[in-house]
Structures are given as structure tokens and as C-alpha cells.
Amino acid sequence: MQYGTLAAPPGSGHIGAPTFDTQRGVVYVPIEQSEPPRIWKVSRDLRTVGIVSMWGRSIGSPAPQRSKNPWLAFNPFDTLVYSSVFGSSDSAFQRVDHLWGYDRDSGRLVKEIPLPSGLHHVQGATFGGNDGRNLYIASDYEEASNGRKHVYAYDFSQPRDGVSPPYWGKIAIPDAGNEVECVVWAHLTWSDARDTHITVGILDDFEIDGENVYFRHFWVPSPERL
To answer: pTM of the prediction?
Structure first.
């Protein structure tokens, strides 16, 4: 296996959770802490193939996220790249109550999807299950009701501008105190356990000698029917 590095574009701020465009073979990397936020396009062989600014409904109008862009998720069905704000828990007005879908070429806002209820500390999202029509959102927010962080699942089989998607439910992550970084869809088989479909990246904040990244794998009930 070959490894390589690629320097971030000049003026880059925080790099968020990326997504993979299966149709073009391009990785979309979110760049925030600049206004407008940007989408950094990287090829399989680690070359920059483009940088796109994120706009509102028209080119030049401000993106609703302003400078925030903590994650991206490519939807292969409507070919839009979705994102949101982070959603600080310090204020109810800073929760994540909308997702925004952008054109991957122009960066123009195409769809605004309200969520059924607000989320906090959204770190990443991925499409998968039901032929890729489900959306799974990873939150680093520890709910007071059960002391867990969660992955939330939504039906994105018919994402319509201005319409909330059906909510499937949530998966509890038993790692209170550690940071939920991202979520990916991957159907994995195990010799001593049932198949898993959701993999969550965890940052261990309790490592003495440095930060340690590990993964938790979750079974999703009947993902092809969700």
C-alpha cells in the first residue's frame, strides 16, 4: 500500500471530514474558517484538481453556513454535496436544524433540508443503505438523557428542497468522553459476529502519550429496507 501527503491550499483553516464522489473518483475535502467556506477537490493519486467556494442560491451570495464547513457528504443520486454547521451546544440557536446541498461544480446552494429536530456537535455524515439513500449523521454531543453520543439516521430517498426527511432513529456510541470524529458506510463481515454497516471514527482523548484514533463498527437493522 502506498501512502502520500498533500499540502492544503493556501489560506486553509480547519479541515473537516471529507467525502468520496464515486462517480468521478474525487475526494471532496471541507475547508472552513474562511468565508466563503470551500470544497477542496482531490484525486485518487493525491492531486488537487479544483477548489470551489460555497455560495447561496446565486454565485456571490453568502452561503447559509457562513464560514462553517465541518463535513461533507456526497449524494450519488442527486449529485449534490451536503454539509451543515457544527452546532454548538452553548445555545439552542446554534443547533443544526438544516442541511444544505451544493452543486459540486459551481458550489451554488441547490437544496435546503430542514431536520425534524435539532442536533449538536455534528462532525460528519455519510450516505449508505437502501442503495445509498439513507443519511447517517455523527454527533459528538453527549445527550443528558443517557450520557451517550449518537449516529442519527434519515431517509434521503426523496430529498426535496424545504421538506424534512423521515427520521429512522439513532445508534448509541458507548464512548463518553472520547471525540466522535466521522462516520462512513461500509458493509463488513466478521467470522465471530454479525455483519456491520456503520463505522465511526473515535479520537481517544485519554491517551497519555498522544491522541489515538480507533474505530467502532455497528450493525444497522435491515439497512436495505430502511
So the answer is: 0.91
CA distance to 34, 43, 54, 69, 178, per residue, from 10 (Å): 11, 18, 17, 17, 31
Do residues 76 and 22 touch, judged by C-beta distance below 8 A?
A: yes
- The C-alpha atoms of residue 81 and residue 23 are separated, in whole angstroms, by 13
Nearest one of 203, 199, 42 to 128, comparing CA atoms: 199
The grid coordinates of residue 145 equal 438523557
- What is the spatial distance between Cα 90 and Cα 182, in angstroms, rounded to a whole number? 21
- Using one digit for the tens of pLDDT, what is the confidence trace for 45-93? 999 999 999 999 999 999 999 999 999 999 999 999 999 999 876 655 5
Instruction: Please name which of 183, 197, 188 lies closest in space to residue 151, comparing C-alpha atoms.
Output: 183
Residue among 113, 185, 124, 186 at smallest CA distance from 149: 124
- Report how far residue 132's alpha carbon sits from residue 89's, in angstroms, rounded to the nearest whole number: 30
C-alpha cell of residue 112: 435546503
Sign of CA dihedral 141, 143, 148, 151: negative
